[in-house]
């Protein structure tokens, strides 16, 4: 892959467009991409920019440098927290929740350390792909804290309550193979060196399908988690019916009958 770097937002986050895949790179490699206020602010801008760009079909997030995806919140930048309102103001409210509002498929490409807020960020993505060297953990209780970026809520939904509480309470790190075994990540790359290419090609496969179908699949699965089964099934049916009227749905069926590749138009 030859990334076409076409702009930087600041220094803490980089954006690259590679074909129709928008890459967001957390760019504080000297601190293992620890999350400070610049990184939070720039990551939000990058997400907004790529989600509203019609030339982008899928967004992928990775960490710069060899050490890892992200070692969590910047512990050194944290204030003394004697004033709770000041601490609250210091954090961009709900910045990881912004990923929940992204319509396009979001993929985390994870290598090395993926800890604390870094793991929380990756859990807000739709798909997590890990390199064999990835290490995952939520060390917050050891810092006298609990995860504040969705970790206590997203982890049980991904791996079940028992495994989530084990990770939350012990603070133990797990490796990529274990993360894959328990369903914290859905794919492992063949090697660290092939991670980005493998995610790029996964993203392009997703992007080759009708965008509305991908967006509705994501909406039904994600929103369904907050609904009763019957309400979720109704949501699915409504979205299914909407897709029946699309040109791309008709084109897919015609291409199958005519034994040719479909040419989707995004309508
Ligand atoms: N914050 C700030 N700097 C960090 C962080 C971090 N989370 N992680 C690593 N760094 C820095 C180190 O300080 C070091 O910098 P320097 O070279 O200037 O001293 C550099 O990155 C390399 O790190 P190490 O030298 O420590 O490398 P090691 O290989 O020895 O260790 C580890 C790597 C194991 C990742 C280790 O750095 C570590 O334990 N980091 C902290 C991991 C952690 O606890 N993360 C969770 C943070 S808490 C969180 O994410 C949610 C809480 C939110 C609260 C927000 C309140 C404001």
Can you give a write-up of this model?
34% of the residues are buried. 40% of the residues lie in helices and 17% in strands. The strands form two sheets. A seven-stranded mixed sheet has the order 1-2-3-4-6-8-11. Strands 5-7-9-10 form a four-stranded mixed sheet. Strand 2 (13-18) and strand 3 form a beta hairpin. The chain is α/β, with parallel strands linked by helices and 267 residues long. It has helices at 37-51, 84-90, 117-123, 151-159, 161-170, 176-181, 195-207, 211-224, 229-244, 247-257, and strands at 4-8, 13-18, 21-26, 58-63, 68-70, 106-110, 113-115, 127-130, 135-137, 174-175, 187-188. The longest helix is centred in the C-terminal third of the chain and has 16 residues, at 229-244. The structure holds octanoyl-coenzyme A. Octanoyl-coenzyme A binds at residues 31-32, 34, 71-76, 78, 91, 113, 115-117, 139-140, 143, 145, 147-148.
């Amino acid at each position: 892959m030859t990334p076409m770097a076409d702009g930087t937002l600041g220094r803490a986050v980089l954006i690259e467009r590679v074909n129709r895949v928008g890459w967001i790179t957390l760019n504080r490699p000297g601190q293992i991409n620890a999350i400070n206020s610049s990184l939070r602010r720039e990551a939000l801008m990058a997400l907004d920019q790529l989600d509203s760009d019609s030339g982008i079909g899928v967004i992928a997030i990775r960490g710069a440098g060899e050490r890892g995806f992200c070692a969590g919140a910047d512990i050194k930048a944290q204030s003394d927290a004697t004033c709770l309102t000041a601490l609250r103001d210091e954090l961009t409210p709900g910045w990881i929740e912004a990923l929940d509002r992204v319509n396009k498929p979001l993929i985390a490409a994870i290598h090395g350390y993926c800890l604390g807020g870094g793991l929380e960020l990756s859990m807000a993505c739709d798909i997590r792909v890990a390199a064999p060297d990835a290490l995952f953990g939520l060390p917050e209780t050891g810092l006298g804290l609990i995860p504040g970026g969705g970790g206590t809520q997203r982890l049980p939904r991904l791996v079940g309550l028992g495994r989530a509480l084990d990770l939350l309470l012990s603070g133990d790190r797990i490796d990529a193979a274990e993360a894959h075994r328990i369903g914290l990540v859905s794919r492992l790359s063949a090697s660290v060196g092939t991670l980005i290419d493998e995610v790029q090609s996964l993203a392009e496969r997703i992007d080759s399908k009708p965008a509305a179908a991908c967006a509705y699949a994501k909406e039904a699965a994600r929103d369904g988690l907050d609904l009763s089964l019957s309400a979720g099934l109704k949501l699915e049916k409504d979205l299914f019916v909407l897709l029946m009227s699309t040109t791309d749905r008709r084109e897919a069926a015609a291409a199958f009958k005519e034994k040719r590749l479909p040419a989707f138009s995004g309508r």
